[in-house]
Amino acid sequence: MKRKRPLESHSDTLLTDETFESLQISQETLAALEEMHFTYMTEVQARCLPHALGGRDVLGAARTGSGKTLAFLIPIVELLSKVKWPNKMGTAAVIIAPTRELVLQTHNVLSELCSHHPHSHCVVMGGSNRKVEVEKLTKGTTIIVATPGRLLDHLQNTRGFLFKNLQVLVIDEADRCLDIGFEEEMHEILRILPKDRQTLLFSATQTTRVEDLIKVSFKNKPIYVGVDDKRETATVSGLEQGFLVCSAEVRFQTLFTFLKRNSKKKIIVFFSSCNVVKFYAELLNFIDIPVLELHGRQKQQKRTNTFFEFCKAQSAILLCTDVAARGLDIPAVDWIVQYDPPDEPKEYIHRVGRTARGVDGKGRALLFLLPSEKGFLHYLRQAKVPLHEYEIATSKLANIQSQLESLIAKNYYLHKSAKEAYRSYLLAYASHHMKHIFNMEALDLKAVAKSFVILDTQIY
């Protein structure tokens, strides 16, 4: 694969010259930060922490990978350290995150940060053992990291869950909480929780719905921390971004060739639906390209195991839906491949936030487009996303189509999975927000079916 023109490189340092020690926080927290190899603050931490440690409400607009997790965890841990919060006082802090994976990751960071503190903490989320959660909540857990749905369930139904003494509420990825259907739950949670508290709310984007949530979240006018407001681009400059225009019938061959060539890299590939992820994972594993899969139809334990397996791997390929697109801190991802385009530019930005994270982070992103979808590039450039065109010669593609068609035709389960994936792809395509670009009428269904290695397009 080669670029049609060279990419420029820029320096992009997220670190400031301000140290955590300058904040005059506890020795216990400083010791934990040292063990976590953090000495200097990122920009969002340097701007947010002095206000948050002082008890002020904070509204933060910061991209994924900016260090905002510590920006809200440190104030919680420090407050509880000062007041020596006993478990009998119930829950002092609630952190809300949109997905189970982000809840688990945030809780892992919290566990490390609390390694020299006595604070009790737990996760509360769908898919985990509710009975165990009830036991922890009724005994008294100081810090809770939760998804909105399960938190509301406990607020409404768990007798003995003491939250009237709540001191701090954190809402992380507020826009994402609303995007995935938690708007009613969020407003009900805010109605139930005590109003006399400190609130820290973070959102990568500001929409009308987020603004409505902000109005009911804060009792007092918050300090606004917007570290990305003056950026010339919406994505970090350590990220080399490109797009590849190829016809539907050779899309999978192109992906296969790309994965083969980059088998020693760490890669995330995004697809439009669970069934599509499931099929391509089955197919690639069957033909000896080992891949992991992460999507919403998996049981929670499977999702958790997959997430941590990918995190720990030196090289691996993860196929996923947008469940993994926000907030997850997966170390050293080399490539983000968007095989199915996102619903809108902000989703593109969220997806590529998985790579080039942190200080001097480097990574690459590749967007697949059909010739009829090139209009999407205009909207990406409007959103300050710098993209360059890649090309791959058809003669360089792996010649596997006829063998795969023969394989699928003979394998009942793969054939069934392929048809389900094809149908799911079309349904997702038909529901795309930008229908003037992602237009069903412009699709060559036979060519699309070929990318799913099937010949029969009549599946309805």
How does this structure look, described?
The protein is α/β, with parallel strands linked by helices and 460 residues long. The protein folds into 2 domains: 2-226, P-loop containing nucleotide triphosphate hydrolases (Rossmann fold, 3-Layer(aba) Sandwich), CATH 3.40.50.300; 239-451, Rossmann fold (3-Layer(aba) Sandwich), CATH 3.40.50. The protein has 17 helices and 17 strands. Helix 5 links the parallel strand 6 and strand 7 (143-146). The longest helix has 19 residues, at 412-430. The chain is elongated and about 70 Å long.
| Major sheet: arrangement of strands | 1-17-11-16-15-12-14-13
Q: Which shape, going by the Cα principal axes?
A: elongated
- Work out the number of β strands: 17
* CATH architectural grouping of the largest domain: 3-Layer(aba) Sandwich
CATH class assignment of the largest domain: Alpha Beta
Given helix and strand content, the structural type is alpha/beta
Count structural domains: 2
Mean pLDDT equals: 87
CATH H-tier superfamily of the largest domain = P-loop containing nucleotide triphosphate hydrolases
Specify the biggest β-sheet. Answer: 8 strands, mixed
The percent range for strand residues is 15-25%
DSSP summary: helix tally: 17
Family: Belongs to the DEAD box helicase family. DDX18/HAS1 subfamily.
Keywords: ATP-binding, Helicase, Hydrolase, Nucleotide-binding, RNA-binding
Function: RNA helicase.
Domain Helicase C-terminal: 238-408
